[in-house]
C-alpha cells in the first residue's frame, strides 16, 4: 500500500515542457533545421511570442535573448511573463529568443525561435569623380560615378532611371552599371563615362526588396548639372581661440562652393555640442564659456557630392585648478626624515590651461623670495612635468622656519591666482635635529558603510584621516574601471568627504578613499572602502507613445517594468488626465495593460501609468489622438505648368496620405499658400470624396502664381477629430529647359578655379595661391599679404615674376565661354554686361595688366578693354568695365612681366553681371567698348546668360 501511494505521488510531479507559439504581425514563419524556426516581421510592427509551459509543480519560466545589440534590454534583465510582446520592434531587436522553464525536476526545458526584422531605409545617392581628375567641378569629358546605397533586410536590389528612361547594362554606351555580388550593405554604382550633354539630367535610384513583407520600393532623385560640385567651406576665425571663462565665443563657417547647396553642421570632439550652444546657419555661438566647453569644434559641409568638407578650430578656456604641494627630505640619505643641516625640497604643482602661460612666484612670511645659493627656485620644463615649481633649501637652519607660499597665475590675466601655504616649523623639525613622520590613518565612521540613498539625492561618503602633515584624500571607484561623478578617474578631497549631488543608479558600488602619495610627505598610501547603494524608481517602457485612433475603435496600452531597486514593485495606477481609471498590485508579472473598448471623444487625451516602489514612480505616457498623419508631397513634378500669359505660371501639386486608415476618414484638406517672405496665408479647403487608399496619388493644380516668385505651400488633412498634422514645401519657379545664369562670380577658393583655363600659346601660367602658403622669402616687397577679403587663408591668382621669367613675358588666363541672349530684331545691337574684378599691383618692377574681350568668330587683332601699368601700392583696388558683345564671348586676363622680380600682379573676385556698370571706381581705367544706343531698353528686357563648359 505504501509503495502504491508513493507511486501516485510521483505521478503528480512532471518535468517541464515548453512550446513557443507566435501571434502579432508575422510576415512568415518557416521551419529551420533542428526544429528551430524563423519568425519574420516588418520593422515597427508588434512582436508577440507566447511560451506554453506544462509541468507540475508549476514551472518558473523566463525569456532571454542572444545575438542582439549589447544595449538590448534582454542583455541585463529577464522577462517572467508567458507572452513576450514588443510593440514597434526595431531592427536591432532581431535575434534568437529563448524561453526557459524549470521546476526542479530533470533538466530545464528550453525552446528558441529566431526573429528576423525586415526593413528598407530611404536610399542615398552620392557622387564622385574618377581619381586623378578634377575633384570639384563636374563638366565635359570627366568620368562620374553615382553611388546608391540603402540599408535593408533582406538584401536590396537597385535600378536606375535617367528622367523616365530605365537604364540597364548595354542600353547606353556611355553608361556602365556595377552589380552587387554580396548581400547586406552592397551598393549599385552608375558610371557615366566621359560626360556628354545628355548626361546632365535627373537620375533616380530605386531600391527594392521585391515587396517582401509588403515593403514598398523607395527611390531618391539626384540632379546632375555642369555646376555640380563638392562642398567647400571657410572658417572665419583664428585658431586656436584662447578666452577667459564667462566670455562668448563665436565660430563662423561659410560655404564658398558646392552644388547642390551643402548643409552645414557643427560637431565637437565631445561628440555632442554643449546644451547652451546656439546655431544660426553656419554660425556657432558658445555663450558664457566654462572649462568644460574647451575642445575642438568642427564645421562639416555635405551635399552628397565627393567627400564632406571639414574645418576645425580649437577653443581653449583659461583655467587654474588643483594646486598641491609635497616635501621631499634629503634625497641623498635613505630615510624619510627632515634634519637640520640637510637639504629640503618644497614642490608646488598647479594644473593650468594653457600651461605655457603659467607663472610662479614664491613668498616667505608674506615677502617675495628670490632665488639664491641656499634658496634655489626652479621651474620644471612644461614638456616634462607641466606646472611644477621647486624651492630647494640647502643646509636647513632654524632661521628658515616660517610660512612659504607658492603663487600661481596666468600671463593672460583675468583668472584668479592660486596660492598654497607650506609651514616649516619646530613641529616639523624639532630641536632634536630630526623628526619621525606621523603616518596617516584612515577609518570609515560607524554607520557610513554601507550607505543607502535614493536616486536624485545628495549623499556624502566619509573617511576619517589623521597624521602629520594631514594628507589629501583621493577617491576612486573600487569595484569597476569607471570615472567618478565629476568625470575624472580620481577626485581629491581635503576633508575626507566625497559629496555627490543628484546621485544616479549608475553610481551604486564600492568607493576607495586613499591618502595622496604627494601631499605632505611621500609615504605608503593608506586606504579604506565605502559601499554606496542607490535606490531608484522603476524604469519603464514605453516612456512615451503616441496612439492615433478613430472613434468607436478599440486599442490596448501596455506599461512594462525594465528594472527597479528595490525590485519589489508596490502598485500601478492608470489615469486619464487627473482621473483615476484603474489601480492594483503587481504580483509576479512585470507588465500592466489598460484596454479601451470603444473610443469616444471624451477618451482622447493623455493617459499615464505610474508604476511605484519605495523610491518613487516610473511613468508610461500615452497620447491618444485622432489627428491624421501629415500628407507626403510627391517631389517628382519637376517643372511649372506653362500658362500662355507672360507673368503667371502654375504648378501641379501632388501628394499621398501617410497611414490614411489609422484614424477617421479624411473629408477635406486645408490648403494654405503664401509668397516667400510674406506673412499672410491664403487658405481654401479641398474636399475629398470617398476613402483615400494607402499610396494613392492626389493631384491639385495651383494657378495664378506670379513668375518668378517662390511660394510656401501648407497642406493639412481634416477628419471628424479636426485638423491633423500639416506638411509644408516650397514651390520655386524655374524654366523647363535651362535656368538663366544672371551673374558669374569667382573668388578662386576651389582648385578648378571656376573653369578658368590657361592660354596655351603664352609664355607662362597664372598661379593660384594664398598668403598663408605663398613663399615671399626672395620677393618680400611685392604681391598681396591676403586675399581681397583680408583672409590669409583665402586664395587669389597671380603671376610669379621670379626667374626664369624675363621682361616682356606674357601669361594669359581665360574665363569660361558665355552665351548672350538671342538678338531682339526691334532693339539695339549688342548686349550690355558689367565685367569687374579686384587687382593688386604692388612692387617696383610691376609690368602691365590687360583685359581683353574675345568673341566667337572674331578675326581682327585683340585690343584691351582695360589696361594698367606700374606700381599701384600695397592694396586691393576694384576695376569695372562695360562690355557689349554680339556673340558668344570670354574675357582674357594678360599679365606682362616688368623689368625685375618685384613685379607680382594678382587678381581676385571676378564678376560678370547683366546690365551697365554702376558707379565705376575712379581710376585710370579705359573702356574701349562702344556705348549703348538705348540703355532703358536693356534694363527692361531679360538677357539670359548661360555658362558653358570649357576644356582645358
Automatic annotation (TrEMBL):
Q: Which domain of life is it from?
A: Eukaryota
Residue ranges occupied by any Ig-like domain in the UniProt entry: 16-116, 123-208, 231-316, 329-425, 440-531, 538-625
Q: Which Pfam families match?
A: I-set, Ig_3, MAM
The UniProt entry, under Gene3D superfamilies, shows:
2.60.120.200, Immunoglobulins (2.60.40.10)
Residues spanning the membrane? none
- SMART domains, from UniProt? IG, IGc2, MAM
Positions of the MAM domain = 744-919
For this UniProt entry, the molecular function terms from Gene Ontology, in alphabetical order, are: axon guidance receptor activity
Task: Identify the keywords attached in UniProt to this record, alphabetized.
Answer: Cell membrane, Disulfide bond, Glycoprotein, GPI-anchor, Immunoglobulin domain, Lipoprotein, Membrane, Repeat, Signal
Subcellular localization, as worded in the UniProt entry: Cell membrane
- GO biological process terms, semicolon-separated: homophilic cell adhesion via plasma membrane adhesion molecules; synapse organization
Does the record carry Calcium as a key word? no
What topology in the membrane does the UniProt record assign? Answer: Lipid-anchor; GPI-anchor
Polar residues composition bias: residue spans:
778-792
Q: Which SUPFAM superfamilies match?
A: Concanavalin A-like lectins/glucanases, Immunoglobulin
- Give the region (Disordered) as residue ranges: 774-793
PANTHER family linked to this entry:
CONTACTIN 5, MAM DOMAIN-CONTAINING GLYCOSYLPHOSPHATIDYLINOSITOL ANCHOR 2
The name of this protein is MAM domain containing glycosylphosphatidylinositol anchor 2a
Amino acid at each position: 500500500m505504501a509503495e502504491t501511494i508513493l507511486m501516485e505521488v510521483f505521478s503528480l510531479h512532471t518535468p517541464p515542457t515548453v512550446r513557443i507559439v507566435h501571434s502579432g504581425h508575422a510576415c512568415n514563419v518557416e521551419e529551420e533545421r533542428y526544429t528551430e524556426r524563423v519568425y519574420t516581421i516588418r520593422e515597427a510592427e508588434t512582436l508577440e511570442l507566447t511560451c506554453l509551459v506544462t509541468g507540475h509543480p508549476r514551472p518558473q519560466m523566463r525569456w532571454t535573448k542572444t545575438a542582439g545589440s549589447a544595449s538590448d534590454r534582454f542583455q541585463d534583465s529577464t522577462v517572467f511573463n508567458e507572452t513576450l510582446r514588443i510593440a514597434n520592434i526595431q531592427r536591432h531587436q532581431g535575434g534568437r529568443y529563448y524561453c526557459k522553464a524549470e521546476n526542479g525536476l530533470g533538466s530545464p526545458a528550453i525552446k528558441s525561435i529566431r526573429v528576423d526584422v525586415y526593413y528598407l531605409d530611404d536610399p542615398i545617392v552620392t557622387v564622385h569623380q574618377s581619381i586623378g581628375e578634377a575633384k570639384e567641378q563636374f563638366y565635359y569629358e570627366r568620368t562620374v560615378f553615382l553611388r546608391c546605397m540603402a540599408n535593408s533586410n533582406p538584401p536590396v536590389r537597385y535600378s536606375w532611371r535617367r528622367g523616365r528612361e530605365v537604364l540597364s547594362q548595354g542600353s547606353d554606351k556611355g553608361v556602365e552599371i556595377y552589380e552587387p555580388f554580396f548581400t547586406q550593405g552592397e551598393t549599385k554604382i552608375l558610371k557615366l563615362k566621359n560626360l556628354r550633354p545628355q548626361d546632365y539630367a535627373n537620375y533616380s535610384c530605386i531600391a527594392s526588396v521585391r515587396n517582401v513583407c509588403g515593403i514598398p520600393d523607395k527611390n531618391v532623385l539626384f540632379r546632375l548639372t555642369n555646376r555640380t560640385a563638392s562642398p567647400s567651406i571657410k572658417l572665419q576665425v583664428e585658431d586656436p581661440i584662447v578666452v577667459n571663462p564667462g566670455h562668448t565665443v563665436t565660430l563662423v563657417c561659410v560655404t564658398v562652393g558646392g552644388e547642390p547647396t551643402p548643409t552645414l553642421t557643427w560637431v565637437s570632439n565631445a561628440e555632442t555640442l554643449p546644451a547652451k550652444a546656439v546655431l544660426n546657419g553656419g554660425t556657432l555661438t558658445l555663450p558664457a564659456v566654462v572649462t568644460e566647453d574647451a575642445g575642438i569644434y568642427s564645421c562639416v559641409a555635405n551635399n552628397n557630392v565627393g567627400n564632406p568638407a571639414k574645418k576645425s578650430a580649437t577653443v581653449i578656456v583659461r583655467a587654474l585648478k588643483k594646486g598641491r604641494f609635497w616635501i621631499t627630505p634629503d634625497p641623498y640619505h635613505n630615510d624619510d626624515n627632515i634634519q637640520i643641516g640637510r637639504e629640503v625640497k618644497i614642490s608646488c604643482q598647479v594644473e593650468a590651461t594653457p600651461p605655457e602661460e603659467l607663472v610662479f612666484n614664491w613668498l616667505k612670511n608674506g615677502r617675495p623670495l628670490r632665488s639664491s645659493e641656499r634658496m634655489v627656485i626652479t621651474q620644471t620644463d612644461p614638456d616634462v612635468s607641466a606646472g611644477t615649481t621647486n624651492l630647494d633649501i640647502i643646509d636647513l637652519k632654524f632661521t628658515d622656519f616660517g610660512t612659504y607660499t607658492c603663487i600661481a597665475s596666468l600671463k593672460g590675466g583675468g583668472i584668479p591666482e592660486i596660492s598654497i601655504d607650506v609651514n616649516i616649523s619646530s613641529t616639523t623639525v624639532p630641536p632634536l635635529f630630526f623628526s619621525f613622520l606621523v603616518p596617516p590613518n584612515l577609518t570609515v565612521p560607524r554607520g557610513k558603510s554601507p550607505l543607502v540613498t535614493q536616486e536624485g539625492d545628495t549623499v556624502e561618503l566619509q573617511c576619517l584621516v589623521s597624521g602629520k602633515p594631514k594628507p589629501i584624500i583621493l577617491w576612486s571607484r573600487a569595484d569597476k574601471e569607471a570615472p567618478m561623478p565629476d568625470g575624472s578617474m580620481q577626485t581629491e578631497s581635503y576633508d575626507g568627504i566625497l559629496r555627490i549631488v543628484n546621485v544616479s543608479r549608475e553610481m551604486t558600488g564600492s568607493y576607495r578613499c586613499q591618502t595622496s602619495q604627494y601631499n605632505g610627505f611621500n609615504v605608503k598610501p593608506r586606504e579604506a572602502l565605502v559601499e554606496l547603494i542607490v535606490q531608484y524608481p522603476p524604469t519603464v517602457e514605453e516612456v512615451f507613445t503616441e496612439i492615433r485612433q478613430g472613434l468607436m475603435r478599440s486599442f490596448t496600452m501596455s506599461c512594462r517594468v525594465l528594472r527597479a531597486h528595490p525590485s519589489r514593485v508596490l502598485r500601478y495606477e492608470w489615469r486619464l488626465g487627473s482621473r483615476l481609471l484603474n489601480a492594483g498590485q503587481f504580483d509576479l508579472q512585470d507588465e500592466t495593460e489598460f484596454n479601451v473598448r470603444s473610443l469616444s471623444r471624451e477618451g482622447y487625451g493623455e493617459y499615464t501609468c505610474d508604476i511605484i516602489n519605495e523610491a518613487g514612480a516610473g511613468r508610461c505616457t500615452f497620447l491618444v489622438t485622432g489627428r491624421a498623419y501629415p500628407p507626403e508631397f510627391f517631389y517628382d513634378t519637376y517643372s511649372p505648368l506653362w500658362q500662355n500669359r507672360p507673368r503667371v505660371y502654375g504648378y501641379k501639386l501632388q501628394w499621398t496620405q501617410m497611414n490614411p486608415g489609422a484614424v477617421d476618414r479624411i473629408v477635406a484638406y486645408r490648403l494654405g499658400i503664401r509668397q516667400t517672405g510674406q506673412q499672410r496665408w491664403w487658405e481654401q479647403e479641398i474636399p475629398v470624396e470617398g476613402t483615400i487608399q494607402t499610396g494613392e496619388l492626389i493631384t491639385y493644380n495651383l494657378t495664378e502664381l506670379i513668375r518668378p516668385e517662390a511660394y510656401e505651400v501648407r497642406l493639412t488633412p481634416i477628419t471628424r477629430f479636426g485638423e491633423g498634422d500639416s506638411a509644408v514645401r516650397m514651390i520655386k519657379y524655374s524654366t523647363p529647359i535651362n535656368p538663366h545664369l544672371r551673374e558669374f562670380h569667382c573668388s578662386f577658393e576651389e582648385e578648378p578655379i571656376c573653369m578658368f583655363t590657361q592660354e596655351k600659346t603664352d609664355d607662362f601660367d597664372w598661379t593660384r595661391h594664398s598668403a598663408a602658403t605663398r613663399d615671399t622669402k626672395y620677393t618680400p616687397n611685392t604681391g598681396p599679404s591676403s586675399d581681397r577679403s583680408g583672409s590669409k587663408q583665402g586664395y587669389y591668382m597671380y603671376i610669379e615674376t621670379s626667374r626664369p621669367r624675363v621682361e616682356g613675358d606674357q601669361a594669359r588666363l581665360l574665363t569660361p565661354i558665355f552665351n548672350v541672349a538671342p538678338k531682339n530684331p526691334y532693339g539695339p545691337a549688342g548686349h550690355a554686361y558689367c565685367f569687374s574684378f579686384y587687382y593688386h599691383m604692388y612692387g617696383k618692377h610691376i609690368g602691365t595688366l590687360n583685359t581683353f574681350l574675345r568673341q566667337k568668330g572674331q578675326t581682327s587683332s585683340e585690343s584691351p578693354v582695360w589696361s594698367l601699368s606700374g606700381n599701384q601700392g600695397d592694396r586691393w583696388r576694384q576695376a569695372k568695365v562695360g562690355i557689349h558683345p554680339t556673340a558668344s564671348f570670354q574675357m582674357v586676363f594678360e599679365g606682362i612681366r616688368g623689368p625685375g622680380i618685384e613685379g607680382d600682379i594678382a587678381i581676385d573676385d571676378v564678376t560678370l553681371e547683366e546690365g551697365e556698370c554702376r558707379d565705376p571706381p575712379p581710376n585710370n581705367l579705359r573702356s574701349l567698348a562702344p556705348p549703348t544706343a538705348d540703355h532703358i531698353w536693356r534694363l527692361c528686357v531679360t538677357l539670359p546668360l548661360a555658362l558653358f563648359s570649357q576644356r582645358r
